[in-house]
């Protein structure tokens, strides 16, 4: 008797094997999908990126609660603006003329000049990151008693006459300009008449609330017509300017 063997077609065998593998390996596929969708890797990446973006842009924009892409976008914008503000344009006189100084970006001081106890150096320092301009040629200064209720009779110094040209004095970032006040330019060597305070407003356009008050040397002589020079880049030039003061200041 002849025995006939049944032959399974190759295509059916292949399909059967594929179904068997799918049935046995379903759990393995789910486990592999877990890390890619569960957020372990993206979470690590986000945690790594956030300090970088927060350090460069978070403080400037005032927050770091947005998405990583939004934070990076803010940081980039801030960096670009910072470059423009701190570039070559911000170190020119023309930039300073167009960007007048704000009172809160200036540090104002006044101290006795070591070589002459009747002369005081008024200093104005730009604490900002770009140049700015003072709209007046000299600070507004008056002398009076620190305990006086009425300051309308305070003494105003003489200033140089013949002023003209651009009204702004450029002050570069981190730099200081000076004006010198001489309370006894004629060497009278008398009494100070109860005057013991120098009041300084760095720019005449600032409100009176931005006036700074400085004590005077107890041994200083104050005459009716003290002298004040123009803003200059050095103390020696400020002294020379003070000596030319010849007209009433405001």
Automatic annotation (TrEMBL):
Keywords: Signal. Residues 52-67, 76-85 have a biased composition (Gly residues). Residues 42-51 have a biased composition (Low complexity). Residues 1-22 form the signal peptide. Residues 30-89 are annotated as: Disordered. It comes from the Bacteria. The keyword Manganese does not apply. The keyword Signal applies. This is DUF4232 domain-containing protein. It comes from Streptomyces mauvecolor. The lineage of its organism: Bacteria, Bacillati, Actinomycetota, Actinomycetes, Kitasatosporales.
């Amino acid at each position: 008797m002849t025995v006939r063997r049944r032959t399974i077609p190759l295509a059916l065998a292949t399909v059967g094997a594929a179904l068997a593998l799918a049935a046995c390996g379903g759990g393995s596929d789910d486990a592999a999908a877990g890390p890619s969708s569960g957020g372990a890797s993206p979470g690590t990446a986000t945690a790594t990126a956030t300090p970088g973006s927060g350090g460069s842009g978070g403080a400037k924009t005032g927050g770091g609660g947005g998405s990583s892409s939004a934070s990076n976008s803010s940081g980039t914008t801030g960096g670009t603006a910072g470059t423009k503000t701190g570039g070559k344009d911000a170190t020119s006189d023309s930039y300073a003329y167009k960007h007048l100084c704000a009172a809160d970006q200036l540090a104002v001081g006044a101290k006795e000049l070591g070589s002459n106890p009747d002369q005081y150096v008024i200093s104005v320092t730009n604490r900002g990151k770009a140049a700015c301009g003072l709209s007046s040629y000299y600070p507004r200064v008056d002398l009076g008693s620190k305990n006086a209720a009425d300051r309308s009779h305070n003494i105003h110094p003489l200033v140089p006459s013949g002023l003209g040209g651009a009204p702004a004095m450029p002050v570069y970032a981190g730099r200081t300009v000076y004006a010198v006040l001489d309370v006894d330019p004629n060497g009278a060597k008398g009494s100070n008449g109860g005057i013991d305070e120098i009041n300084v407003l760095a720019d005449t356009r600032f409100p009176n609330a931005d006036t700074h008050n400085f004590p005077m040397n107890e041994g200083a002589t104050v005459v009716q017509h003290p002298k004040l020079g123009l803003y200059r880049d050095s103390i020696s030039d400020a002294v020379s300017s003070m000596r030319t003061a010849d007209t009433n200041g405001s």
